[in-house]
Amino acid sequence: MITEDDLKWWLETAAQQEWIWAKTYADTAPHSYIVEGRTPSLDHDDYVRAGRVIHTFGRPAKFYGMTSIYLTSPDGRLKWWTMDADVRDTGLINQATTERLYGVQNAPATESGIETQYDAVASSYDERHPTSDALATALRDAVASLAGEYPPAVLDVGCGTGRLLDLGIAKPDRYAGVDPSTPMLNQLVRKHLNVGAIYPMRIEDALTRPLFTPGQFEVVTIVGESSEELPAETIRALESIASRGVIVASGEEVKIFWTAVDSSTSSLFARRIATTVLCDPCSNGRPIPRSVARHNEPTTSAVLTSSPARLKRDRGRARPLGPRRSRSRA
User: Fold this and answer.
1) 255 and 263 Cβ atoms separated by less than 8 Å
2) CB-hemisphere CA count at 13 Å for 235?
3) Percent share of the chain, pLDDT over 70
4) Nearest Cα to 63, choosing from 100, 112, 10, 8?
5) How are beta strands 300-304 and 310-313 bridged, if at all?
6) Residue 57 CA, distance from chain mean position
7) Quick one: how many helices (H) and strands (E) in the chain?
8) What is the pLDDT of residue 137?
9) What 3 state SS string does 112-127 have?
10) Interatomic CA distance for residues 266 and 59, integer angstroms
């Protein structure tokens, strides 16, 4: 965990270092640095700790083609940043005055003004919470079942550090993430430079403003929390902005709520199909699908056949109930 005590440690430590002027970059990117092996008072663990502090309490800005996280000193005079992709490899820290800018400054904003339980663990979240192969497969299958001819536009609710992007399930330029944790979003934008949009806020706040229109996204995902944890009105609002479906992943269970927007009325069809994919560790890492058809009438059971978009009821012939594929371009 990274706390205010770690931030205080780094501010005191940085002031005690002999920073080296980067002669090679004197004209293109003026700055100073310290490097592991040339700072007797700092070992590798100290560099990693400093990197985590910077990534937790800093804010995104561009270093030319890279999105880096810059920590600004309390007096606003200095800033520090790292260059290693993995914070555990941190062995060099850069320092510059805050008026120094490197390239066009168009990095996404991650400042939410909200403290969350994930802030202190954001810099180590990925290594502490890896995605199982079974869950990754289930998520890929779920998104694929809702995709059309082109990669779907995805709204990732509670996106955190960008699990869907890490797995390659969503395309960065077709992706929007919503999350109130600034440090978690810092990790996301460091890893994925061309992310389409970031909304540093609670989903309830995003829906209240409102920021989204009916059917704006083809797929809405909620990974890591149960739909029961969100208010019913929030779930209904998310369904209204998903033209094809909502995917909810809680633990090792992935549910698909099929939605469709009536082009003549722009209203959500009353009928929804909930497809549940259970990731059973006894199935050699492959997800075991289970489907439930939910209507305004009493619920009827269904089983998933070879195609996740085709459901077969207990009585009657098999019939496709998934969303129609669209040839529309983003």
Assistant:
1) no
2) 14
3) 77
4) 100
5) antiparallel
6) 18
7) 8, 17
8) 95
9) CCCCCCCHHHHHHHHH
10) 39
How far is residue 200's CA from residue 108's CA, in Å, rounded to a whole number?
A: 10
pTM of structure: 0.81
Buried residues in 137-157 as b, exposed as e (16+ CB within 10 A) = bbbbbbbebbbeeebbbbbbb
Which two tokens mark 45?
Answer: 């663990």
Query: Distance between CA 231 and CA 242 in Å, rounded?
Result: 17
pLDDT in tens, 263-279: 443 343 333 445 555 55
Mean pLDDT computed over 181-204: 97
CA–CA dist 216, 278 (Å, integer): 29
- Is the pLDDT at 239 greater than 50? The verdict is yes
Domains of the chain: 4-107 (no CATH), 127-320 (3.40.50)
Distance separating alpha carbons of residues 301 and 314, to the nearest angstrom = 7
Report yes or no: 119 and 161 within 8 Å, Cβ to Cβ: no
Nearest CA to 147 out of 10, 287, 309 is that of: 309
C-beta atoms surrounding 32 within 10 Å: 17
Say how far apart CA 49 and CA 55 lie, in whole Å.
10
103-156 pLDDT, tens digit per residue, is 999 999 999 999 999 999 999 999 999 999 999 999 999 999 999 999 999 999
